[in-house]
Amino acid sequence: MKQSKMLIPTLREMPSDAQVISHALLMRAGYVRQVSAGIYAYLPLANRVLEKLKNIMREEFEEIGAVELLAPTLLTADLWRESGRYDTYGEDLYKLKNRDSSDFILGPTHEETMTALVRDEITSYKKLPLNVYQIATKYRDEKRPRYGLLRGREFIMKDGYSFHADQDSLDETYQDYKKAYEKIFERAGLTFKPIIGDGGAMGGKDSQEFMAITDDRTDLEKWLVLSKNITSIDEIPESVLADIKEELGKWLVAGEDTIVYADGGDYAANLEMATSQFDPKAAYTEELELEKVATPDAKTIDEVAEFLKVDQSQTIKTLVFRADDELVVVLLHGNDQLNEVKLTNYLGADLVEAASEADVEAAFGVHFGSLGPVGLKEVRIIADREVELVKNAIVGANEDGFHYKNVNIGRDFEVSEFVDLRTVNEGEVSPDGRGTLKFARGIEIGHIFKLGTRYSEAMNANVLDANGRAIPMIMGCYGIGVSRLLSAILEQFARIYVEKTPKEEYKFSWSINFPKELAPFDIHLVPVNIKDETAMALTAELETKLRAKGYQVLVDDRNERAGVKFADSDLIGLPVRVTIGKKAAEGIVEVKIRATGEVVEINKDELVNTIEILNQN
């Protein structure tokens, strides 16, 4: 492929509006261009990477019996009304009308569509299981699209759906998808963790997320590739290293999710789902007499603990939430933070939100800061499991400016349920006891769900079982953020290349170090001077040889200065660059391996073998 025929609009500088390195490099290296906020065009280089990702997926999904199809993007709202999501999905749903004023949406996901398709065609359990998927564009009206491809309004997603007559069949397919996802991400060269995930708006209970880990950039050697005339980071002057650290510090660590993992075991979960070890046994403590005390101007846990000269662990915090149309009181231990995802999942409500101060005053006659569980009537009280262990606690007295001391559950108030509702903290013991919890940032690249009968029951997607009875199909759902993968790969494979010039000057620049299986081309042929007939003849000869060996070759045939060509080549980030320069008449070319920065001069007849040897890892 001739570079002069490609649309690769590289930039001299990083775009000023980019906050993460993947967005900056995709823009600067000419892979994508923003059309409007949160909406991008995938230029030829990006499209080639995406197609390679899709082909990897197709190969792995074929191994598990998944069949590709393509569903429409423009969907009738009637299907979403059947499932109940039309009114509950939220403001991210694109809603529109056709010329007949019928309601439509732009599909953010396709559970309803696939359920309807299968419902209308499959009537017997004998036709199950059925496992289908598509790779298509999705739409979500993000309020604040950001970080390039990581949070957009239009994106490419692979979404798969399986239909089953029994739970065992779903469990088997779920595990097949888990293994397929792991193979896909391994082939993409990603460092990732499968973690316990939250089903969110998708419905269902069992789910697992796949998170690409993003580096915090403290390990400088991991980010550097040493090239010409440099063999060790120790050779680089401190002033240059300081400049490199400053450059790294300009970019946010990508990943909107916090991953919680055990440093001594296999446990890993999204922060929204993570838990820690809990010992339900409380030491015996004598119950003291209930006492009401004045706490003027003390409203927060810290203020109350400081005023009463006690540790905050002796306090219980009282919160109020509205779950659909019901007020629910939630109790937490000390300064523990409520995990609203856990609360929402436990309550099973469509909408859970913090109650307003007006709601609380109308229901209980007290303001926030003095609210407590003692004396509350006809309201559901849920407590985090840690609360059950607190004896002689301090709580609000339901009177402004007062708190109760020595409050005990069972004697002074009752709790409906004790459940895990708190957000874990780094350093707590893993739930399996194998090490302590650590936090890392990550990008969600895949998610698999056991939906159960959430959609089939709502949409009457039934089959007849072996006894002729109508049963709802059991469903699974399996997603990969394809365009997100492109950003995740760059976040992990962006590198700073450091070179020492003949004048003993140090230069460094950003570049992409693509995994070989995903690079848009395998080899970049760069003739320094296209007016040199000998060099161009050698370039054509090498291109023919390399293509015959199955390599995908990009030839920089542009009439540009050598410096421009090399700068663009570094930005594009192909695994191998072959420079055809002054020694072309001698049949000598320069080979640079991007992953290692290694540069060698070789004879043209040795090029194919040399590339295979140098680029085998």
From TrEMBL:
Key words of the record: Aminoacyl-tRNA synthetase, ATP-binding, Cytoplasm, Ligase, Nucleotide-binding, Protein biosynthesis
UniProt enzyme class: ligase
Sequence ranges assigned to domain Aminoacyl-transfer RNA synthetases class-II family profile in this UniProt record: 48-502
CC annotations in GO: cytosol
GO MF term (any one): ATP binding
Alphabetized Gene3D superfamilies for the sequence: Anticodon-binding domain, Bira Bifunctional Protein, Domain 2, YbaK/aminoacyl-tRNA synthetase-associated domain
Chief localization: cytoplasm
Example GO BP: prolyl-tRNA aminoacylation
EC number annotated for this UniProt entry: 6.1.1.15
Keyword Zinc: no
PROSITE patterns the record matches: AA_TRNA_LIGASE_II
Stored NCBIfam families: PRK09194.1, proS_fam_II
Quaternary state and interactors: Homodimer.
Classification via PANTHER family: MITOCHONDRIAL RIBOSOME PROTEIN L39/PROLYL-TRNA LIGASE FAMILY MEMBER, PROLINE--TRNA LIGASE
Stated family: Belongs to the class-II aminoacyl-tRNA synthetase family. ProS type 1 subfamily.
Descriptive protein name: Proline--tRNA ligase
Taxonomic source organism: Lactococcus taiwanensis
Gene name of the record: proS
